[in-house]
Amino acid sequence: MARDLAIDLGTANTLVYMKGKGIVLNEPSVIALNRQTGEVLATGREAWQMIGRTPGYIVAVRPLRGGAITDFEITERMIRLLLQRVGVSRFTRPKVVICVPSAITEVERRAVTDAARRAGAADAQLIEQPMAAAIGADLPIDEPVGNMVIDIGGGTSETAVISLGGIVALEAVRVGSFDIDAAIQAYVRREHGIAIGERTAEEVKMAIGSAAPTEDESQAEVRGRDLMTGLPKTVILTPEEIRFAIEDVVSSIIASVVRCLAKAPPELAQDFLVRGMYLVGGGGLLRGLAQRIERETQVPVKMSNMPLEAVVLGAGHCIEHYDALKNMFMGARR
Amino acid sequence: MLTVLFIVMGVLILALGVVMMIGNRRINESGVRSFRRHIDALSPEARREVHDRVRAQRDKKEGR
Ligand SMILES: Nc1ncnc2c1ncn2[C@@H]1O[C@H](COP(=O)(O)OP(=O)(O)O)[C@@H](O)[C@H]1O
Ligand SMILES: [Mg+2]
């Protein structure tokens, strides 16, 4: 008998929690394929290393990139490989709880659960990402008080208000940390005339990116290809110009948080002022972002303890208490 | 003859009503119970197990 599993199928990273055991897998949600034959060549970290460096016959893709499933077949294969790697086969048949972006459609949901069942899961259930994040971030969601959680991932940002074990208000947008990378890429191209890859842009973001001025800021050197000469070239980027480059993305993420606040019933809104809102997800680690949200909403923002693991932790809790938490699964409320 | 029939019918309707009421109450009770179970399963005490497990895992990895 295989042990039951909880999966955080993120736009950037996939994590798997095994019942009674803990996190058994944590890697980028990337798959590399042979363009001609459609064969899978690599997944996870190995495939991630290929992004932007593949010869013509290989493609390395993130199937959930925009918080939507663009290619069902590829997504299905990724899920099957994932389950195989953690020991699921037709004979072991574990129960599986999967976290998906709340923006995905009914058809996409069915594709995910079907893929898990075909890969050998006895039962596959979905749970909303911000709900899992709130459980994992250790918020007192069993009480009749307003808990607010903001999950900023690669392709999506989801804000939710949770009380008494259920979602009261939810605002999900298909904007996230990948868009910050893209904004940096576009800026460097436009202002410095050099082309840089997606992974280089991500490195710049992590090294000097910020949503508000912070102490001890430094510059970064970035290498790319000169658009005029076609030759490698190095330029220096400052934190101010990166802030300027990513401002549109940052403000649209904050706008979605504000919209969620506006959707919350007034009784709960009072609670936020006292308890604050909790930030989870890799995108929430951007320097100065918590302060920016705090300033623009007038609500205190706190970083959760395990921002990158919160979602899988919450889903893991659901697999440990499967029967008691059954009515939290997405299919249950229809 | 007709009165007997009416009485029998009356009794039947009453019995049906009672059965429905009991059924209803049972459904309500099961609602209360499953809601309690749901909320209890989300309590900080219930959640500690998974948290401690993952935190221990992480500390072990960082310690190495
Ligand atoms: N220190 C950091 N500063 C800014 N962005 C970060 C940092 N660490 C991770 N990220 C970004 O967070 C995103 C991944 O977050 P994650 O929560 O794993 O996403 P998802 O849940 O969508 O898979 C990536 O786009 C990554 O670049
Ligand atoms: Mg996530």
What can you see in these coordinates?
The complex is a heterodimer of chains A (334) and B (64). Chain A has 334 residues and is an alpha/beta fold. In chain A, 37% of the residues lie in helices and 25% in strands. In chain A, the strands form 4 sheets. In chain A, strands 3-2-1-7-8 form a 5-stranded mixed β-sheet, sandwiched between helices. In chain A, strands 11-10-9-15-16 form a 5-stranded mixed β-sheet, with helices on both faces. In chain A, strand 4 and strand 5 (40-43) form a beta hairpin. Chain B is built from 2 helices and no strands. The longest helix of chain B is centred in the middle third of the chain and has 40 residues, at 2-41. The mean pLDDT of chain B is 82. The chains are: A alpha/beta (334), B mainly alpha (64). At the A-B interface, helix 10 of A face helix 1 and helix 2 of B. Adenosine-5'-diphosphate binds at residues 10-13, 153-155, 177-178, 202, 205-206, 281-283, 285-286, 308 of chain A.
Under CATH, the homologous superfamily of the largest domain in chain A reads ATPase, nucleotide binding domain
Fraction in helix of chain B: over 70%
Q: Quote the distance from N terminus to C terminus of chain B.
A: 92 Å
Strand content of chain A: 25-35%
Biggest β-sheet of chain A: count, sense, barrel?
5 strands, mixed
